[in-house]
Fold this protein.
Amino acid sequence: MILEAYLLLAAALFSVGLFGALSQQSVVMVMMGLELMINGVIVAAAALWFFVSPERPDGQVLVLVAITAMAVEMAVGFAVTTAIFRTRDIDVVDSADDLGDRDR
Amino acid sequence: MAETVVFVVCAVGAVASGVAVFVLDSMARATFALLASFLFAAVPLLLLGLSYLGVLVVLMMVMEMMVMVVFMIMYMMNPAGLMPMSMLHNKVGALAVAIGTFAVLAAGVFLVPWPAREGAVPADPTLLLAEAIMGPHMLVMMLVGLVLFATMVASVVLSTPRGRYDRYGDDLRRARPDDPIDGGLGR
């Protein structure tokens, strides 16, 4: 097993997640894309730890931080979804573009 | 040899089920495809000897996707996939950006001269991680704990239907909050 194979897997996961985050209309599906992107980061950090500096714990600590980021993203994302759905009945990102600069 | 076969199967499985998330019509099925993708991606972590972090990813993802499937069915208009439908915007642009990103990342993977490995893999990587986050990397652990606590508070504040204007009036001048049940001691 070589480092490149793991990094290629991470790049593929990141790109699939990026496609989802950019193309999906539903807020929940956008969050799924973000989770896939973070998952790519986890795989890449673990592979770099194992193949580059296994005696130092930095790579593992980065994996731990990425897992936490995933949990935070999921919890706050659903809370924001609930808040915006409660106040304005919005469940797709296209309706929540108030801060965009496009003409209405 | 066996490791290579397991890695290839899991890598292909992880990417394929990741793609399936955005292809399937049913939202419940998409959530379980995402769960499959996470489980497949956790196997390479286990292959690297990261037993603690690999099992942590598996456990967290199983629970997270169980919660997510509830939210998916709550917030999606087509939870069971009974009618084929597409909820995409700018599909071509997103596809181009994703493929371009993958091309750049893959080129980087093969063009960057990665450094040679320094030192040997420790017998117990979990011990290495534990000693790090309870020793020289303790700041990371403290920040993670603080952020998770802030997340709990923030998600409750965001998802509760009553805000501060409901409790303290439109000008926030009410002396005591107007709550259905008074909080605090001595109720």
